[in-house]
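1st attempt posting a full record on here, be nice pls
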Amino acid sequence: MLTSSIACIAYQNNKIFIAKRKPIGDMGGKWEFPGGKVESGETFEEAIQREMQEEFFCDVKVIEKITESEFFHKNQKCSLNVYLISFLAEIDAKKENLPEHTDYKWVDLDEIKSLDFVDSDMNIYPSVCKFLCKK
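the predicted structure (as tokens):
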């Protein structure tokens, strides 16, 4: 069975929004594009809204799909659906209150290459860069 996930790309003022996972699990402590699993009966857009509300206590607007890819996690095939989003308000969540992350920040696209990033997100990085450079 194919597990579906979403990744959220927020891009403003030539910066991209990333978050650092809590230091637990096999991807603990790594940076990522926010997102998560799509729950049963949920659309990609609904999953994006839910994940951003759960993880950063904020509402977002889904703008358009950027790309999709497949990867393996714990020997299970997963699809990663990547969407451009915008925040409907400034993020003001206190980092110590985040349920799944220890940090978040806005960075230049090139800075991502120097960070310890989740593998599945590094696989989509070239497509994300290509898409954002057209904007």
